[in-house]
């Protein structure tokens, strides 16, 4: 497994950038009122590192305001005491084609989030459905066009992929993750528009890399430096890409490809192993 990945020189060549178009999106977010690192279920979590909830709340609010400024709507899901990771709303489920699939978490520490997000889905008019096997929502399920890219290897059970395909009526492409630092698909791959992705190749198995190369020959390959900064844990509206401010190399790649990078600081929430996308559940319409 390659430990350090440098963007190939050919990807740094200057080419005319295509015209990108934004589309208003609908997001759900949960404020980090009860955020803490009380346990370690991914390599980024360190229970000895102090967490400042006030800073986390301010950074989260800045992200919410960024979405509003860009013309998107944000629904707030009420946090629940005792669920410190509920701020990572993307893991709560997957909503598309008027179907709301609620998450089934691998770790007991997060299992009660299923009920909380199910209640929210019901409150906004959906009838939540679940899978028999573990699925961790948009952490491992990313929609691009009319296809779902589905990660497995650390959290979501690959047997859930077939269930997701049947529930949504959409094709699902399974992608194996092999580096525990990138334990969810949304930490190693970002959907930029209906045809374009960015990803970190060493996070994936050789078979998954081959699949991505075939499906997305124009994908942006991100360096180790930006991947370790959680740069791929980003949210795009087709033009504006909201990403961790520390991922400066990726921001330059985005700009060269015609996108508008919008850097935000979520360093406090990174202590729990999440950033922009982790905090954002998109309601696909």
From TrEMBL:
It holds the Pfam family DDAH_eukar. It comes from the Bacteria. One of its GO terms (molecular function) is arginine deiminase activity. GO terms for biological process: L-arginine deiminase pathway. Gene3D superfamilies: L-arginine/glycine Amidinotransferase, Chain A. NCBIfam families: DiMArgaseDdahMtb (NF045659). This is Amidinotransferase. It comes from Mycobacterium bourgelatii.
């Amino acid at each position: 497994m390659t430990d350090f990945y440098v963007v190939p020189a050919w990807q740094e060549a200057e080419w005319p950038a295509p015209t990108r178009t934004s589309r208003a999106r609908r997001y759900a977010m949960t404020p980090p009122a009860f955020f803490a690192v009380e346990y370690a279920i991914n390599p980024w979590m360190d229970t000895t590192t102090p967490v400042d909830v006030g800073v986390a709340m301010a950074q989260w609010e800045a992200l919410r305001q960024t979405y509003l400024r860009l013309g998107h709507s944000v629904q707030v899901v009420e946090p629940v005491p005792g669920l410190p990771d509920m701020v990572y709303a993307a893991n709560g489920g997957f909503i598309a084609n008027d179907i709301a699939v609620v998450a089934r978490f691998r770790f007991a520490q997060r299992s009660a989030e299923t009920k909380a997000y199910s209640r929210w889905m019901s409150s906004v008019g959906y009838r939540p459905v679940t899978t028999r096997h573990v699925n961790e929502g948009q952490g491992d399920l990313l929609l691009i066009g009319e296809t779902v890219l589905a990660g497995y290897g650390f959290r979501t059970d690959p047997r859930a992929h077939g269930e997701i395909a049947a529930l949504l009526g959409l094709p699902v492409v399974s992608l194996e993750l092999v580096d525990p630092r990138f334990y969810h698909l949304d930490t190693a791959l970002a959907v930029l528009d209906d045809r374009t992705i960015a990803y970190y190749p060493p996070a994936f198995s050789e078979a998954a890399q081959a699949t991505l190369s075939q499906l997305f020959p124009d994908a942006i390959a991100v360096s180790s430096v930006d991947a370790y900064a959680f740069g791929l844990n980003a949210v795009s509206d087709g033009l504006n890409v909201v990403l961790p401010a520390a991922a400066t190399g990726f921001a330059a790649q985005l700009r060269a490809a015609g996108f508008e990078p919008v850097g935000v600081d979520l360093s406090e929430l990174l202590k729990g192993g999440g950033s922009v996308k982790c905090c954002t559940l998109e309601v696909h319409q």
